[in-house]
Design a protein that fits this description.
The structure holds 2 protein chains of 2 kinds. By secondary structure, chain A is mainly beta. Chain A has helices at 2-17, 198-204; strands at residues 34-35, 52-57, 62-67, 73-78, 86-90, 96-101, 104-109, 115-117, 125-131, 136-141, 146-151, 157-163, 166-168, 171-178, 184-188, 192-196, 209-213, 219-224, 231-236, 239-244, 249-255, 259-265, 271-276, 285-290, 298-303, 308-315, 320-326, 328-329, 349-350, 352-358, 364-370, 375-378, 382-387, 393-398, 404-408. In chain A, strand 34 and strand 35 (404-408) form a beta hairpin. The longest helix of chain A has 16 residues, at 2-17. By secondary structure, chain B is α+β, with helices and mostly antiparallel strands. The chains are: A mainly beta, B alpha+beta.
Chain lengths: 417, 395
């Protein structure tokens, strides 16, 4: 018996030592919208930085909001369950914050801090899609339940409904996002595309949609092509393609077989970053697939060696590709307050650098080292950082000029009377 | 001096303010006490010399005599009786001095004795019942050494019985007849003892003079070093601030029962919030004070008499520097306050010059530290109560 216990203990030890978290770089596949760990992006649908940015502070377990221009701290908002992981997201005007946590999704109105809890999931929220002009949210959990929510511009609730993931008998959603004009586009497991009428679905508390068959492999990822009205950039197992929701056809497609996905990007212009060859082999070049008009697939092959990309933003009109690399993701040790970096919206790690390249010739216009322990958010214009200081320390850097504005000691207001 | 007169005088002495009289016991004491000690040592030497002097020369004044008046007035018979008196009483006088059986009392009150219809000012009186000699402080101090020896020897002789009775000034004794017979005998014997005091320096006295001890009442300069523990409160639900600890250095000028003080103190308090926020407050106080000293005993040279309580009022200016930081950032803020307060301090002697002290003090300072970046003020109350331990040196 003693021998058996020893074997069991060794097996348990071996299991715990060899545990590895799921690869975060494929976390955007088979989701509606964006993984909750990536949703706090600060880029507007117009491509500019949002007027107000937010962070969930792991040190004080509050959500902070800053004004992007002066980087003045506007407020700190408590969450109902500070012990849980939180993934905040804000509207473009900063009038409300969507606080996503385990089985708890709340709307916090600013600056009052008034909170409204939405219908709860049985599972863990995994993804969120948002359409700014109609203040519509689609949140899905890991049990494939879907919450449709429509808010007023001030963050008050207009309507909400909780639906199952099965749109047709035996057919579930696979991936999806809002189209450029606000329709919810879902790829279904039967290889069809559903165009969901969100307003009607909210009114009738069931899926209301039209579907069609697209001549393509099952789509694991899609994103709206800005300014096109009805075109979506998507990826199947073999191709990167653009399809038109209204024409119900594939308008452009390129073969991506043999290439390895490194990162999906939905901010601002949707794009997919590939490396060629097998994952783990030293990478010399990155290939960025995107679409300017929705009628073509643009392919930019840029020499960029080394560390993995863990956040990316593309702005085709400005000819800028902004991304952050990390040498050792999810490995941070330091002597500050105990943090749960795993819950951070972005993946902190050792040896991070923000790089901004010109797409047309690959010129590395900017490279900014990023501290290991900072939570970051990026847009084409700005890099924001929140440091794990219990007193409160955050900064905003203009990427082009390097000008940095800091906000410090903002947590102290909650400590004194 | 008669017993009645002595009673009157002693009553006067007892009714006089305690501050202006003291009783000498043992070593140390006031400057008069030291002078008295020196005088007694000289008398001892004189008495020892007298015992080795031929009786026929003892009560006669030679060319080296310092006090010759009382001896010039007596007859040969009286001189012989004086010599006999001194020879027999000498060892007893020495014993009286060495065993410290005499209580010495000082007074600034004018002392007079009633002798018949008239009164007479005196420099000292002896009471054989209480074995107490009371000395007029000012007059004793103004006397030359030989005058002091004569005066004290005279009074000591009143405390020893002769022919089974104590000699009074107005008694007739043997060949010393008349209303001043007793006084004439004692004066002659005291003069003889004084004249026998060697003119060379006496080693014991030289020792006193080389290491003079400042009497308690003349200790005007006090240096005090205290370890402070003061209360500190902060108006915050999330930050705690511990008790302030530090040191204080004080100079006190003592004049009789009242004193003036000037002091400096420095205290530190530490606090914390959440898991990594540290708070430090450094306080520097500058103060002045006025105090009153209350002795625990009447005898200024006894342990109780040297133990005392100081009651003080303080005006204190405090500057505070507060810093708050975590492992990444920090900020400093300053504040200042001027406040009134008070203290009570128990001083217990541990040696001739050093005292141990225990003090309770309250000088409450309300401070507001404005942190510019954080746009908030942290308010503290410092020094509402403090208990201090210290050591003092006086000179």
């Amino acid at each position: 018996m003693r021998f058996n216990f020893t074997i069991i203990a060794l097996l348990l030890l071996t299991t715990s030592c060899t545990y590895r978290p799921a690869d975060p770089y494929k976390s955007d596949e088979d989701l509606i919208g964006t993984a909750v760990t990536q949703i706090a992006r600060m880029t507007k649908t117009s491509g500019e930085s949002k007027d107000r940015v937010i962070f969930f502070d792991e040190a004080t377990r509050k959500i902070h909001q800053f004004e992007i221009g002066t980087f003045k701290h506007l407020g700190s908002y408590s969450v109902t369950r500070p012990d849980l992981r939180h993934y905040p997201f804000s509207d473009e005007a900063g009038n409300y914050i969507v606080d996503v946590a385990s089985k708890t999704i709340g709307i916090i109105r600013t600056p009052s801090g008034e909170r409204l809890d939405l219908k709860g999931f049985q599972g863990q929220p995994v993804s969120l899609a948002y359409h700014g002009p109609t203040h519509t949210l689609v949140i899905a959990d890991d049990l494939a339940s879907v919450l449709l929510v429509r808010l007023n511009p001030d963050g008050s609730l207009q309507s909400q409904t909780l639906l199952g993931g099965m749109l047709k008998p035996g057919v579930n959603f696979k991936s999806g996002d809002f189209g450029p004009d606000g329709r919810l586009i879902l790829a279904l497991t039967d290889n069809s595309i559903a165009v969901v009428d969100v307003t009607a679905s909210l009114g009738l508390n069931k899926w209301i949609f039209q579907d069609f068959i697209l001549n393509a492999q099952p789509l694991s990822w899609m994103a709206p092509v800005p300014g096109t009205g009805s075109k979506m950039l998507a990826r199947s197992s073999t191709n990167v393609l653009v399809f038109d929701v209204d024409l119900r056809t594939v308008t452009a497609s390129v073969d991506s077989s043999g290439m390895t996905i490194e990162r999906y990007g939905k901010s601002f212009d949707p794009h997919i970053v590939f490396t060629e060859g097998t994952s783990g082999v030293s990478v010399l070049e990155r290939t960025v697939f995107s679409s300017m008009t929705g009628n073509e697939i643009r392919r930019d092959r840029i020499r960029h060696q080394g560390a993995r990309i863990n956040a990316t933003e593309l702005h085709l009109q400005k000819d800028l590709w902004t991304f952050m690399t990390v040498e050792q993701p999810n490995v941070v040790t330091w002597d500050g307050p105990k943090l749960s970096f795993e819950s951070a919206w972005n993946f902190v790690g050792l040896g991070r650098r923000l790089v901004q390249r010109r797409l047309s010739d690959g010129l590395a216009a900017v490279e900014i080292p990023v501290e290991d322990n900072a939570l970051v958010d990026i847009s084409t214009e700005h890099l924001t950082r929140l440091y794990p200081s219990e007193l409160g320390w955050a900064s905003r850097t203009e990427i082009q000029s390097g000008l940095t504005v800091e906000s410090k000691m903002f947590n102290l207001r909650h400590l004194g009377k | 001096m008669t017993q009645t007169a002595q009673k009157v005088l002693l009553l006067l002495v007892l009714l006089s303010p305690a501050a202006w009289s003291s009783t000498y016991v043992g070593n140390g004491g006031t400057s008069e006490d030291l002078d008295l000690k020196e005088t007694l040592t000289q008398i001892e030497e004189g008495l020892l010399n007298a015992q080795s002097t031929l009786p026929n020369r003892l009560c006669r004044c030679d060319t080296d005599g310092k006090i010759c008046g009382p001896l010039d007035q007596i007859s040969g018979l009286q001189a012989d009786e004086c010599a006999k008196f001194l020879t027999q009483q000498g060892p007893l006088l020495l014993d009286l001095i060495r065993t410290q059986k005499v209580r010495w009392s000082w007074t600034d009150q004018d002392m007079k004795v009633q002798e018949g219809d008239s009164s007479r000012s005196v420099d000292a009186v002896a009471d054989e019942r209480t074995m107490t000699i009371t000395i007029h402080r000012g007059r004793f101090s103004s006397l030359p050494a030989s005058g002091r020896q004569f005066l004290i020897a005279h009074e000591l002789m009143h405390l020893l019985p002769w022919d089974s009775k104590y000699i009074k000034d107005t008694d007739a004794v043997g060949s010393f007849k008349g209303r001043t017979g007793g006084r004439d005998l004692i004066n002659a014997a005291a003069a003889a003892a004084t004249n026998a005091v060697p003119t060379k320096s006496i080693p014991q006295i030289t020792n006193y003079q080389s290491t003079p001890k400042v009497p308690f009442f003349e200790m005007t300069h006090w240096l005090e070093l205290d370890a402070l523990g003061a209360s500190t409160t902060i108006e915050s639900d999330l930050i705690s601030l511990g008790r302030s600890t530090g040191t204080s250095f004080k100079y006190r000028y003592q004049l009789g029962k009242v004193n003036a003080q000037i002091y400096y103190n420095r205290l530190m308090a530490k606090g914390s919030a959440l898991s990594s926020i540290n708070l430090e407050q450094e306080q520097r106080g500058y103060g002045i004070g006025l105090g009153y000293r209350w002795q625990l005993g009447a005898n200024a040279e006894s342990y109780r008499g040297r133990s005392h309580i100081l009651l003080s009022a303080h005006l204190e200016h405090l500057t505070s520097a507060m810093s708050i930081n975590d492992s990444l950032i920090g900020e400093k803020a300053a504040a200042r306050s001027t406040a009134l307060g008070g203290s009570v301090k128990l001083m217990l002697p541990v040696s001739d010059d050093f005292w141990f002290s225990l003090e309770a003090k309250s000088v409450p300072h309300r401070l507001s530290h404005k942190f510019e970046q954080a746009e908030i003020s942290l308010k503290t109350v410092n020094g509402l109560s403090s208990t201090n331990l210290g050591v003092s040196y006086a000179f």
